[in-house]
Amino acid sequence: MIKRRQFIGGLTALSASYLLTACGGGSSSSNASGKAAAATGASGAAAASGASGTTGNTTPVAKASVSNMSADGTSLPASPYIIDQFGAKWTLSNGVIYRNGATFGTTYNVSLVLFYGGKIWHCGTGGNFYVTADVPNLWLNCNDPRNVIAPPTGMFYGMNGHFDYTYTPQQIVSILKGMGCTSYRVGVTSGSNQLNAAIGLAQAFQAAGMTLVVLINQGVYDSNGNLFAGENAAYSQGYAVAQSVANALKPYGVTIYECGNELTRQNATVLDFNVAGTKAADFNNANWPVMRGVMRGMIDGVKAVQSNAKCGINFCVNDVGAADALWDGNQPDGSGGHPTVRWDITTWHNYEVYGDVFSLGADGAQPGFDLPIYCNARYGVPFIITEWNTGPEKNESYRGNYITTKLGEFYQNRKTHNIQGVMYYVLDSGDQTFGIMMNGTPLNPSYSAFQSFTAAHPDN
């Protein structure tokens, strides 16, 4: 298991350029220099943290820390006790839950305690489910984590791209078909150049019967780089931009919009890029309303134009602390009763240094939990991984093996975890840091690994 300092070193490297410029919303030209810096930064951070080689040789894949951990699916009272991945012993007595002999939170009339996907869940006689959160003695409302609706087929294999590619929309469609992809994510703002590029793509994708996922790339800062004055100002900006984008693309079959790009991982929103984000307190309480406002504005702006469109909010690393607080209308300081953010699709970015999305720890020193299972139970909507890749410093041989391994993991879990799509980052990065092709030429073995997998594993 990777040590905590190695994990922190990786996140530190990502915080500066990898997180902020290696994403689907920027232009291809601006991202090329950012990724090169990220590759250098990743190596430096690994050396500073005592890691051998560059970050990404090992990842913070969370493993059980105890040999007698209970099997996934163990429940009380069918079993006498549960041993979780931390070694804690859970028991149920007279409808009350105990952990290591002490009551855990306030529980009563509990009829089921379940260990599933690395989390403890319980259900009372009234049929309501609750799950443990990464806050002491806290239970959150959720659905039964075992009840997952299989996602619709037809867009599982996806790719990221940029609005300013020199490829024509028809060339992009042809390239994607050759790789077995049926979906494509591109980021735009309401500027005419970007919208016109998106319209061209939407027309080509509509004609080809493929899915275009549009990232509305509105952030928490105004055009002068200043944080919006408050939640209302942020909401108004988000609403106006999203409404313009949806109005332009509605006629061409676009129905999925991602509202903002990594907004929880901006300088103004996360207190420390080194934290994994499992606690609401990891985020900036003062600036939280601005982030919440721009998210709400974008969702409402899209819905005002397309009531049946699906809106996603994306998160990074293990930002369930942020996701839960937004969904429930809470602030990072723990106060409640604030406006809620309710999305139709949970979207996530999962680069190798973040860890395995199916066993994602609070940091590299802790055992983890199954993130898609948790999100499906908490929010009850489909899950899309809108960006994934290994690190920018990896060679093509490593990247090819990584693609095969991760696609296998995603594919195996797609129906049991309601994963609607996984979108590789990126089609062409202008260099060999992230792209799967460059200037129209495939980069192998990455390209062939992707193509071979999709050919052998149909999306059905």
TrEMBL record:
Q: Which residues form a coiled coil?
A: none
Signal as UniProt keyword: yes
**Which InterPro entries does the record match to this protein?**
GH, TAT_signal
The answer, when asked if Signal is one of the entry's keywords, is: yes
Q: Which UniProt keywords apply?
A: Signal
> Which interval of the chain is the signal sequence?
1-32
Stated name of the protein: Glycoside hydrolase family 5 domain-containing protein
Organism, by scientific name, is: Paraburkholderia sprentiae WSM5005
